[in-house]
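Throughout this chapter, every protein is written as a compact record of paired, labelled lines. An example of such a record is reproduced below:
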Amino acid sequence: MRDALELVRRELGPEASVLHTREVNAGPLRRLVFGRRYEVAASVAVQVPSKFSGDIGDLSLDHAGRPRVPQGLHVPPPSPAQDAWEGTTGEDRAESARGLADMDYRTRYREDFRRQVAGQLGELQAMVEKLCEQASSAPTHDLPEALFRTFTDLIDAEVDESIAREWIERLRREENASVWGDAAVAKARIIELLEDDIRVSGPIRTEAGKCKLVALVGPTGVGKTTTIAKLAANYRLRERRRVGLITVDTYRVAAVEQLRTYADIIDLPMEVVATPREMREAVARMSHLDLVLMDTAGRSPRDEVKIQELKSMLSEAEPDEVHLVLSSAAGANSLLGTAEKFAEVGTTAMVLTKLDETHGLGHLVSLVRGCRLPVSYLTDGQNVPDDIQVAQRGTMAERLLGM
């Protein structure tokens, strides 16, 4: 900036006024690549109050040829050397004025630097005070040993801190809070609180003489095809129901062959569908069966076009139930966002898969409490027809909390 102001002085003279200044390469990355560059707009025809009292616009001379002192800028009394100002030439006076500007510029720079540092220190102090306030308001403050251990166990189980804090505070407010001297009793009470928040739909129920169509939807890689194979095997081999399969997953490589292999092993009819018209015909051909399971292609919850395509296909099939399949390996926020996006296709329940592939299941507490969908099934392996269970509130609460 000093170089830019010096250029203005050389080109326009000491009577020029600075109209505008800005740094061109703002931001650390641009500064690193291109260096610091500044833009200064100045004019000798326009006289305006300067943004800083040391800018070039304040260096014009008065009627006696003396430099005009900017308002608010303190100038010490003239020294004996400065008394000779009247006898100097115009060039000497301009040079003296530039010297005053340089001194004031350095002073302003130091003042600005001090203000910036003071502001940063103030922000850091505010952050420290906020952290101290949060720490002092944590539920572990002055907690009985049993509740403190329960709180730390919940955090270790990957339960969201706000939920764990809510439960601990509820225990403290209960009338019989004096009995929470035993950690086992406290954990049992926490399980009861979670059990009250869990919603389950039970297994898929079939009726004699009526065909039930159930579709499984969800993102890619969550285990929809394997889950369908487990359901088909259980209803065909253990429940002795007449089961059929429909797949519209013609996008994923070998998806049709994978499901056809399961259909051949279990001895089930299977239809491959690519258009809405084919969907109507396939459903009509399987209307004599007890249960028809539909496998759909994985869809990204952020792809609105694919979600609408899935919605159109399901509207032709008119399924009785639409189960959203979610992988337990995903994060809580991602699961909640996915459930919200797939709600557009008419989901009625959700299946939680890959429970065996996560270190802790506590993050699923946020899902079951924040999602409106009830849980129908849990899967924890690749074995067909095993590794699938009907979701039950009690056992599910214990499993999610690891207690």
About this structure: The longest strand covers residues 17-23. Confidence is low (pLDDT under 50) at residues 50-59, 72-76, 81-86.
